[in-house]
Design brief:
two-stranded antiparallel ribbon; 8 helices
Amino acid sequence: MTDVLLIALFAFLGAAAAGLIGAAVLRLLRHRSLIVSLSVVAGVAVAAMLAGTLTVAWAMFLSPHDLYVVTTVVAMAALISLATAVLLGRRVAAQSHELALATRSFGDGGTFAMPAGQPAAELAALARELAATSAKLDSSRERERALETSRRELVAWISHDLRTPLAGLRAMAEALEDGMAADSGRYLRQIRVEVERMNSMVGDLFELSRIQAGSLALAPARISLHDLVGDALAGADPLAREHGVRLVGDRIDEVPLEVDGKEMSRVLGNLLINAIRRTPPDGTVAVAAHRSDSGVVVSVTDGCGGIPEEDLPRVFDTGWRGSHARTPPAGAGLGLAIVRGIVEAHAGRTEVRNVQGGCCFSVTLPTA
């Protein structure tokens, strides 16, 4: 038993010495190719076995012939191990190189393509993660392009919508200064109307900037959905009468909500104003609200005739105004963008779909 323990101790000391040397070599070569590292690992395994064997052989006083035989056997094993390590390292290095080339392609703005062949499990997992990241980057680039297009359209439309009333204000102001205004009271009333319209546009821009900057501070309180919708209908009734549109709101459930009443009133007001302006005279704008499995759903249905299918995904984008984009009553195209921002700040979502004769805007909010 004592001899066995001594043999194990000598073998361990020899192998440990080889292992320490191998660890030092790996540290020195840590920035080199994977082929070199695998070769070192294979060499350390064989060297550890050889060192342990030689230590035990010297302790046991083996004959030179027996020691030569053992050394030859270990040398052959070392040769095969190194060859295997080199082959494995070349294969892994080639797969890594293909993966690097594929990664470079989507880093430069392209799309990641899985390398051909069957890579190692770890490299295959990395390739799957890179493919998922590439898909997310593509989606992000597409959203960025859409946002940039919306920003450019918004700047162009805001410039147009501000330039027109400003030109009118300047002409009326000059007429008043020169005493050329036959009815100064009418001029002053028109100036006030234009100023209020521009003030509304500037207010929408400020509200949208707060939403996009994430600085919209909500003050949620428990309110009744019936009261919220009723107040919005009452506020929109004068505009509906002016346009000859009938408001209908007889499908409102008594559901409690935990929302910011002021901001949600703005949401419903924007939806109603948009629906009334898009609905022809003698048309109907219907409001409904009910509880569903996903939360509380408030919908506003108008008689606009529908929205082209290709435009439906852009309805809530900043600056979108459809085909009636250059007339002042269309506004700056911020109302629906503000609606989406406020609803998402309440952890809700907005949707739009075409229905017979018009379209239906729906807002889904979490229940109280």
